[in-house]
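Record type: monomer structure entry
Structure origin: computed from sequence
Chain ID: A
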Amino acid sequence: MTDVLLVGAPNSGKSALFNRLTGLKHKVANYPGIIIDVGKGCLSSNRQVTL
């Protein structure tokens, strides 16, 4: 099992990339006071990789 971590600047498309790679629909919000959320999912093409 391989783990991959997505990190980057705010509003850089991390959630969009996560949703595209996993096929999930992780929702995000962009306003002050939002707590950083952690999402976890397997790649659609390879279930051995956790994103």
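Annotation 1: The chain has one helix and two strands.
Annotation 2: The two ends are 11 Å apart (CA to CA).
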